[in-house]
Amino acid sequence: MAEPTVFERIVAREIPADILYEDDRIIAITDIAPKAPVHLLVVPKTAEYENVAALAAGDPQLLADIVAVAQDLATERTGGDYRLIFNTGEDAGQTVFHVHAHVLGTGLQEGSLGSEL
Ligand code: 5GP
Question: Measured from the CA of 30, which atom of ligand 1 is nearest?
Fold first, then answer.
């Protein structure tokens, strides 16, 4: 069996995280290495989907729910303006192959997308 991803370990409370939202299928946390004053991750609890395209194909409702959680958290924390980023593939900066949305508020420097996320 594959090693659990860092996000599965957070869901299992094996490693600590600043949990902002949780339901039976989704967890949202503060990124441990924020690239903007607001930098959150919205993550499906299942590690079944490696990236957003796989999630969209396999469970579009779960993707829609992730976007809705991102919107709600951004409304609370950034006034509702934000970037929603799904890095896909190593060359695009993806380091955790368990799909997750980055929610970035204001203050992101231009040019800091991609490998820095
Ligand atoms: P990726 O590079 O795959 O798009 O994004 C993975 C994100 O997970 C990175 O922004 C990284 O800072 C974050 N991350 C990695 N390990 C941990 C952790 O243990 N806790 C939290 N809160 N975030 C993590």
Answer: 22
2 pLDDT tier (thresholds 50, 70, 90) = confident
Ligand 1 pocket, Cβ-based, cut-off 6 angstroms? 6, 15, 17, 29-33, 41, 87, 93-96, 117
User: Exposure string (b/e) for 34-54, b if CB count within 10 Å is 16 or more?
Assistant: ebbebbbbbbbbbbebbbbee
Q: Tell me if residue 102 is catalytic.
A: no
pLDDT tens digits, one per residue of 101-116: 999 997 655 555 554 5
Residue boundaries of the structural domains of the chain: 40-58+68-94+103-108
Q: Which atom of ligand 1 is closest in space to residue 95's alpha carbon?
A: 3
Structure tokens at 115: 């490998």
pTM (predicted TM-score) = 0.93
